[in-house]
Design brief:
With about 260 residues, this protein is an alpha/beta fold. It folds into two domains: about 130 residues, Rossmann fold (3-Layer(aba) Sandwich); about 110 residues, Rossmann fold (3-Layer(aba) Sandwich). Helix content is about 50%, strand content about 15%. A four-stranded parallel beta sheet has the order 2-1-3-4, with helices on both faces. A three-stranded parallel beta sheet has the order 6-5-7, sandwiched between helices. Helix 5 runs antiparallel to helix 10. The protein starts with 5 loop residues before the first helix and ends with a helix. About 45% of the residues are buried. This is Sirohydrochlorin chelatase.
């Protein structure tokens, strides 16, 4: 009898693991849904045999409640919910946990994707794709800065997380990175760009801290005088980060059970 291949062993090893449910916000922009689906395809390719599902908080189908109900109907026992969100806020701290608690499937809720070094890696890569130069002279660097454009939230923890992501990105770029917001929080992206220019930072780029195309990402990009990066979308670091959050949630659950 032939021995199973490494791929077959990997598939068997992950087949009994909890389902990974990626929880996206949802958007009226059709590009958002296609981007998220492509990202999930990358996750599946990286972890063959791991069940991966999608659930939305609002605006798109399937909704998270429907995804969890479908898993229950299929006899799935466990799921790990990983928010496709880049900071803490109302959705991460209340909406997703409350939906998970009401489900018949046993669930664990992972941390959002940010802040994390992998997120900073993706942000840097998108900036370089948009034309950001990593070989600036000292004079060019002294005149440069980045505005990190995020959605915004009334929850102060969201701003804390975004500032941490900005610091991680600044460490990679060697220039100031200022958080700014599309909605709810201050400053706006336009205000941040102008403030940096008034301080002599005339070469200001906008880094799009959004998971997929949509109204906020488009409006923030329009505020850029020079470079505006694309949303993070299907950058390889995003799939890697989703799996990292899944694995961390599983490890935390195992440690809690052993305690």
């Amino acid at each position: 009898m032939s021995q199973p291949s490494l791929v077959q062993l990997d598939v068997r090893r992950h087949a009994c693991r909890p389902t990974l449910v990626v929880v996206a916000h949802g958007s009226r922009d059709p590009r958002a849904l296609s981007t998220v689906r492509a990202l999930l395809d990358d996750v599946r390719a990286r972890r063959p045999g791991l069940p991966v599902r999608l659930g939305h908080i609002e605006l798109n189908e399937p909704l998270l409640t429907d995804t969890l109900a479908e898993l229950d109907a299929r006899g799935t026992a466990d799921a790990v919910l990983v928010p496709l969100l880049l900071a803490r806020g109302h959705h991460v701290k209340r909406d997703i946990p409350e939906t998970a608690a009401a489900a018949r499937v046993r669930t664990r809720v992972a941390a959002p994707l940010g802040p994390h070094p992998l997120l900073a890696d993706a942000l840097l890569a998108r900036l370089v794709e948009a034309g950001w130069r990593t070989d600036m002279t000292p004079a060019e660097r002294a005149a440069s800065a980045v505005v990190l454009a995020a959605a915004g939230s009334r929850d102060p923890d969201s701003a804390v997380d975004t500032r941490r992501t900005a610091r991680l990105l600044a460490g990679r770029l060697g220039v100031p990175v200022v958080p700014a917001y599309a909605s709810t929080a201050a400053p706006t992206v336009t205000t941040a760009v102008r403030a940096l220019a008034a301080r002599g930072r005339e070469r200001v780029a906008v880094a799009s801290c959004f998971t997929a195309p949509g109204r906020f990402a488009t409006e923030c990009a329009q505020a850029a005088d020079r470079i505006a990066s694309a949303p993070l979308g299907t950058h390889p670091a995003m799939a890697e980060l989703l799996l990292h959050r899944y694995d961390r949630a599983l490890a935390a659950g195992a440690e809690s059970s052993a305690a």
